[in-house]
Amino acid sequence: MSDDYRVDDFPIVVIYLNNRIPKYATKNIEYLTKTFAKKRIVLVSNIEANKNSIPTGKNAEFYLLNNFDEELARVTAGSELPNNFRNGFWISTIARFKALEIFMRNDGVTSALHIEADVLLLSNFPFKCEAFRSAKLAFPYVSERTAAASIFFVGNISTLINFNEFIEISIKSEPSITDMRILAKFGEANSNKVTRLFSGFGDYEKHCEYHIFDGATFGMYLTGQDPRNSRGFVKTYFDIADHSLTPSQVNFKYLGNEALVKLANKNYILTNLHIHSKQRKYFSYKRTNNLIRKAIEGSGKGGKVTFYTEAWLGLVTNYLNRRIRNLS
Asked: CA 282, CA 275: separation in Å to the nearest integer?
């Protein structure tokens, strides 16, 4: 297909496996349909009931993975990651790449942009930058040892197939390996196939000049860390251990509806935020720009801890459900 097809028409793909899609993810899909009204938005899942999360009459659609359990077991065979953590969270993060391959093969698309369900694409996202014209695979790193598929572009399905084969080999040789380490190792071994999206460190800005991508660092710093990891408390404006960039030392600005990150006396346009805290308000479309502006204005003043009632109630509900199952 032509370059114009690759640049303008590749779908945005959200993948959610093994569980009902949460409210924040449904809100994000609605946000995507409104913000990128000319883009095709696809939710891929092995849970048929998740089809109900797609806005009707919009540019979003649902793709059901039939008989995926067998494939899931095969891809992750030998993994020692805890399968009981959040109903298979770690396994799902690895298996999603096979789900993406299956969708692309069956749908016939030659390129796609996969984003995690809690990743906010800002309205200025550079779909036409060089990385999305020429890359075989492209994603950001959070350190030299770990990468993040918060944004995961596929420009060559053969390379995605190679990556999925690499996943199976990696699990057999290192059963406790996570998706973030697998991504980085694949990049190390296949530098000619992987484009590193600039995330604030390393000499990779040439692929999307003047733009910066968030693997997790900026979103966790500006909008908070997952409250499920801290009994319902959202920790905002804290540096993240093991990430190469120290966000508290970065100068953030919000100018003309664009979030800017200043590094080495140069301003970069922030393209996305990983909303690790899962707060739905950031996906509210009409309020998003104002909320991001407020988050940036609040940075540089030290760490902040707030209580997120919805997350705490979810933790209590899950705990009670486990107790009831154990008693029955």
From this structure: 8
What's the mean pLDDT in 172-181?
93
Alpha carbon distance 319, 328 (integer Å): 15
Sign for the pseudo-dihedral over CA of 123, 241, 189, 70: negative
Which CATH code fits 3-200?
A: 3.90.550.10
The continuous run of DSSP H or E covering 56 comes out as: none
What token pair was written down for 222? Answer: 């500006």
CA distance 180 to 146: 5
Q: Where in the chain is the domain with CATH 3.90.550.10?
A: 3-200
Tens digits of per-residue pLDDT, 196-234?
A: 999 999 877 777 889 999 999 999 999 988 767 767 777
Contacts with 259 (C-beta within 8 Å, 6 or more apart), sequence order: 122, 252, 253, 269, 270, 273, 292, 293, 296
Q: What is the pTM of this model?
A: 0.90
> What is the tens place of the pLDDT at every residue in 13-31?
999 998 899 999 999 999 9
Radius of gyration of the chain (CA): 19
Helix (H, G, I), strand (E, B) or coil at 171: helix
**Listed residue (45, 25, 156) closest to 92, CA to CA:** 45
| Token pair 């484009």: residue | 195
Residue with tokens 């899950």: 318
